[in-house]
Amino acid sequence: MLPLTSSQAQAYDREFRRSGVREQGRGRGLVAVAVLIRLWPACQLFFSFTSALRTVGHAAEVTRLNAVREP
Predict the structure, then answer these.
(1) CA 22 → CA 16, 25, 32, 41, distances in Å?
(2) What's the whole-model pTM score?
């Protein structure tokens, strides 16, 4: 293989650095996605979901069951 001239070496070096920056960007993006994927179940675990309709429906069901039990 023939030795590279100075301008060819500089062009190769610039392209190598650009590809490194692209790879770093992809890596940061993947880490961000992984963090979001892990945060979603953690939020689901620690913050329970209750809606007003669900609570009202539950209270109505308890009242109905209590009425059925009483003679």
Answers:
(1) 10, 5, 15, 30
(2) 0.54
